[in-house]
Amino acid sequence: MKRFVASLVASVVAVASVLVGGIGLVAPAGAQTPPVVPVPYVGVTPVRVLEPVVGGVGGGPMANGDVRTLTVTGIGSIPAAVEAVDLSVTATRQGGNPIAKIFVSTGGTATTIPALTVKSIGSRQIATVTVAPSATGEIAVRADLAADVQIDVRGYFAVDAGFTAAPSPATVLSTSTGLGGGELVGGQARPIGVLGIGGVPATGVSAVATRLVVTSTTAAGVVRLAPMGAPATAGESTRFNSASERVSSGIVGLGQDGKVQLTATVDVHASMVVDGWFDDSRGYTPIVPTTVVDNALVQPGGTVTAASGAVLPDTGISAVAVQVVATGTTVGTFSLRAGTGQETPALSVGGPTANLRGGSVVWTPVRTDGTFDVALSTGMPATRATLSVVGWTAAATVGTDTTEPTASVESPTPGTLDASESGSF
Question: Fewest CB within 10 A of the end CB: N or C in the chain?
Fold first, then answer.
């Protein structure tokens, strides 16, 4: 009801403005229309732009070296003009050696950091990636080794809403080449500067969207990404096995001196790029990762409700950034589901019972009480899941008109618009 009333009020104000202009009334000198501050992140009913079937959308299965150009804007409920798109990328390796890698970038550009990697033949991985489309609304997808690749657009970042996508991912760490230092040493925090690098502003940044690649040769372990100066245990964790390469996406606030830090449990090589950043005055509020689902058992085809309201403001939230970690007994698809019931892939879990998968941060819209659902695909073994909220984006608001009105005119007081009224969720 609150959202309906807010929408109705906004509609009445808009109609009244048109009528005033239509009958020739003149607005008082100095009066201005308060600007609407849009929702930074908007979740949508997923739109598939690539499917792994012959003759399917986007061209079907990908062969080794294939490059596809996909249109990701102006489709479904996604506007023609967006700052960036939020993609769910699923890949199943078909054959060949060594590791299958899927690269996603702005249409017409190249990137050295994959969206995901798949080690074993027949195994599947799912990742989320934020990428800026080209001026014509396209992205490029490249496969190193044959793979069945599926890509869904699960949301977008609005233009001029507090998030800026990097035209080309800014590399801030590459231990194999010495950029940012050599191999990470187990137990030691590595400070990483991000400001003023690769297009990232030198000031005015609250958080960055990252992609981290961990390459292990000797042992399994965990790498934690956190604001510089924060306890390592307060950061986002990426888990990896021995002789593997793991990719994870993150959203991390900046700490001391505008830096972030990486801490590994074992010696390991890592690379990291910045895919975008948030203004420090609006858009996104980073928080210390807070668990909202703690090792809950999710049954096949079932859901668990995540109650994030305790760590969020009572109102004005459009979406939350959530880190997902799960334990499975076989390969399966673990999914986040928005409050309206839409379901988008978030994580692939598999291997022995003790094998934890996860680390990537995914976006999900929330209900007005701050809840959202966690779902496991039908036909998969029960899975234990842990989810932690790492930050949130604000709902759309009408800005304040700071211009002093004339004495004969009383300016209306704008209200707060619920993000779901945009019709995108």
Answer: N
